[in-house]
Amino acid sequence: MKTAFLLLLFPFFATSSFAHEYFFAFAEMDYNKTDNSFEITLEGSAHDVEDVMNESGIPIKELEDHYTDQAMLARIEAFINKGYTISSGGKPAALKLQGMEVKTNGLIYFYLKSEPIELTKTIDITFNWLMDVLPQQQNKVTLRYNDQKYTAVFLPGKPFATIEFQV
Amino acid sequence: MKNHLLTALAVGLGSTLFAQHKFAQLDIELPTPNEYRNAAGGPGHNYYQQKADYKMTITLDDDRQIIRGEEVITYTNNSPDVLEYLWLQLDQNIYRPDAESHFIEVEKMEDFKSIKDVERKLMTFDGGYNIESVASVNGEKMRYAINHTMMRIDPAKPLAAGGSISFKIKWWYKINDRMKVGGRSGYEYFDTDKNYLYTIAQFFPRMCVYSDVEGWQNKQFLGRGEFALPFGDYEVSITVPGDHIVGATGELQNGSVVLTAEQRERMKKAVTADSPVLIVTQAEAEQKEKGHEKSLKTWVFKAKNVRDFAFASSRKFMWDAQNQQVAGKNILCMSYYPKEGNPLWERYSTKLVAHTIATYSKYTIDYPYPVAISVHSDKIGMEYPMICFNGGRPQADGTYSEETKYGMWGVIIHEVGHNFFPMIINSDERQWSWMDEGLNTFVQYLTEQEWERGYPSRRGPAANITNYMRGDQRYISPIMTNSESIWQFGNNAYGKPATALNILRETVMGRELFDYSFKMYCERWKFKHPTPADLFRTMEDASSVDLDWFWRGWFYSTDFVDVSVDYVKHFQLNSNNPTTEKGLQQQESAQKPEFIGDTRNKESIKQTVNEKDPNIDDFYAKRNVYEVDKLDQKEYTDFQAKLTPEQKKLIESNKHFYELSFTNKGGLVTPLIVQATFADGTTEIVRIPAEIWRMEHTTVTKVFLFDKEVKSFQLDPFLETADCDTDNNSFPPSAAPTRYQLFQQKANPEENPMQRQKRMEAGN
Which partner from A164, B254, B410, B668 sits 20 to 30 angstroms from B564, CA to CA? Predict the structure, then answer.
């Protein structure tokens, strides 16, 4: 059977494969029971993120230049939501970018808050952020809920995970 | 709760559990010592290595981005073996359209979401070697066979032990556009001034290593596992456009021909200068960018006892140099960079080169080569003997972020540091990336900290590796994994070994023992080919610290450190003084919470039977258990009489005993560093070696003795063990705030501070 697939058109931005890439993103998630939302810190290599954004049609030189650039922050928020989704009981909760911070060691932290979401016994996470362009990208989540910690690993061939809460 | 401890003699019964594998010796994992590599971790009495000398004539075609070369290799067989064939590396063949590396990536249809994904899949670069001839020095053709990135040459007769052979290879290839095709070397094209900047490496057929460990190391080059190369002497002539500046491995032999009188005069100043002197200024380089000279110049370089050769060439290059002394020897430190690298490069690059070779020399071996070079090469970092290619490019307006500055500093220190690992301490990169990347990243950390106090090193500090190490272990590789099969290359080959060495130095061995042993490893294996076992054995043998558990846990497993404090029990010595002890018992009894039924019964039951009838209460009901009687006093007097004065003093000292329970949740055995904070605010640290886990790997208890009452305990208070979950490290329990909570407490960062400064100065 022949299946047609949809191609998205992005302008071409040159990239190169670098000798010493970082290829690792990490999300620290906490559930705030007061407003039923996730508070998230998403960590990655600033250069990796810049490269992938360029590849994905968002031309950017350095993320630090855009701390107060609302238009770019909106694009970054959409860029993150495309590669990092959470849902519970089949209901998704979009992530709102609250701020970002590039550290002097080259890491970037994106601070995110989810829309309110009622937790069921499980939470579904898709976290293939950056994997489109960096095939060796590996992402990891640590979720803290009711004094328990849960972790999940995401790979290009394994972009989804379901975390089941201990009762 | 305060418990009381009986001063009675007790026989301690050890755990009957037999579980010693985390502390088992590495006998099975390590190769048997032999005459080539001894059990102490040094070269054996019959250690040998091969030698490969090269004489090369290279031409760089700047119009067509092609490189042509003719090389004469003289290969000396110092092994005890007869070699029927010789293997050479053809790294450029990784750019052939039929290269194996193009076919080994796992793919799914969802990988092709955009037109660009498809373009990338379809993109071909017609690279790879064109071998024109392989012949003896007399011109007789030699038989050869190419297997992807390896070439076998069959000598007319086998090469005897102790013999040598010379042969010629003529080749050419198209240089890759590094910014489009990628790669460790290639060219960058600058559209604004129509010029090229070439960083050329892995450009000639190079001999493979033949050793006692692997025979020929001829594992195919798939892109990640780097190189294994024998040492030798090089004489290389490089012909380039007449307005190019060339930097290369080795010393320039014909400066009087290729440099102007003014450049030679400036260089004369630089060789004794303690800060960079410009040999080619920015204005001169910008002037040359405008013309494209048609004449050619040949630059000649010689390098002794190196494992490889690389060079950079461009008319865009600025060039500066300064001297750095190492052990009384002058080293010429240099940088080559286009104007696009400024202002960062002119200000920092050469100073970083000088600092790096001086600091590495302190911790490893004295830098032995006459020059050390840093070349600007956007976005990458890549190393070769005496020369390396480094990123770090400011914005077009000349401003740069702190991240860019620290990124540039870090990559220059790292790549210059590779002169030591693996260029001199010449491990097999094709097999073990960590042996050069990990060790180099560790010394990079030490060098960064000596450059600037509090330098924000990304790798080295234990706490920086925890996100990687915790969690699902199926997608983490042990460090002892071949370079091509590693999950998470950067964290695995760079970060984790660098962290492990830092923990050895700061926590397990101590700085003095570690530094001596590490330097011993470097001294033993400089200009030789070490293996992991040589490192593991030297570190133990030179320090008298049994580290098998450490190598096993950190290098052979994916266990991680997560130790929890489970409970704390407080005890004090029983004085046996009935007045004191019974008084305390009475006090404790009175402080016990009352059961709600008892409270309500006081109201609801007006009178019990024994309250009504005085004949009910007998001896037991009437006695006061807290009353001190004569017999109690006599027993106390007898007890006192048996005690020595020292024992009496001990009982009167009012010491506090704390029993703490620890659970090893991550599996990696680790020293326990426990900080007690007393009621008066003072602290005390107790360091417990990892061997506390030697019989019981899961849960251990330990009793701590203090003169003062403890208010709280903290495990790993200085974040030195890479404990992946510090929320369970304290008693009473307390969780650290999340990064998000910390972010909420401070103002958002705004703009690039340099741009803000410029805006302010412009009055905007």
Answer: A164
Q: Give residue limits of the domains in chain B.
A: 27-47+427-555, 48-230, 654-738
Q: Which residue has the tokens 């990304």?
A: B458
Residue B51 CB neighbour total at 10 angstroms: 16
Q: Which of A19, A65, A101 sits opposite B380 (nearest CB)?
A: A19
Q: Out of A83-87, A141-145, B754-758, which region has the weakest mean confidence (pLDDT)?
A: B754-758
Residue B112 at interface with chain A, using a CB cutoff of 8 Å: yes
Q: Looking at the partner chain, which of A40, A67, A135 has a beta carbon nearest the beta carbon of B105?
A: A135
Q: Which residues of A touch B738 (CB under 8 A)?
A: 28, 30, 39, 41, 144
Burial of A70 (0-12, 13-18, 19+ CB in 10 A): exposed
Distance CA(B392)–CA(B381), nearest Å, equals: 9
Pick from A41, A50, A64 the residue to mutate for testing the B interface (most B CBs within 10 Å): A64
* CATH class belonging to B48-230: mainly beta
User: pLDDT-derived band of residue B762, with 50, 70 and 90 as boundaries?
Assistant: confident
Contact across the interface for A132 and B404, Cβ inside 8 Å = no
Contact status of B755 with chain A (Cβ, < 8 Å): yes
Which of A104-108, B112-116, B438-442 comes out lowest in average pLDDT?
B112-116
In chain A, where the domains are located: 24-164
* Same CATH fold assignment for domains B48-230 and B654-738: yes
Q: What is the ipTM of this complex?
A: 0.85
Give pLDDT tens digits for B387-441. Answer: 999 999 999 999 999 989 999 999 999 999 999 999 999 999 999 999 999 999 9
Number of neighbours of residue B636 by Cβ within 10 angstroms? 18
Q: Report yes or no: B397 at the A interface, CB cutoff 8 Å.
A: no
Q: In what order do the strands lie in the sheet with A84-88?
A: A91-93, A84-88, A122-127, A160-164
Q: Which helix (H) or strand (E) holds A154?
A: strand A148-154
| Position B123 confidence tier, pLDDT thresholds 50, 70, 90 | confident
- The answer to whether B32 faces chain A, any CB pair under 8 Å, is no
DSSP B51-91: EEEEEEEEEEETTTTEEEEEEEEEEE--SSS-BS-EEEE-G
Q: Which CATH number fits domain B654-738: 3.30.450, 2.60.40, 1.10.1060, 1.25.40?
A: 2.60.40
Supply B610's token pair.
């024994």
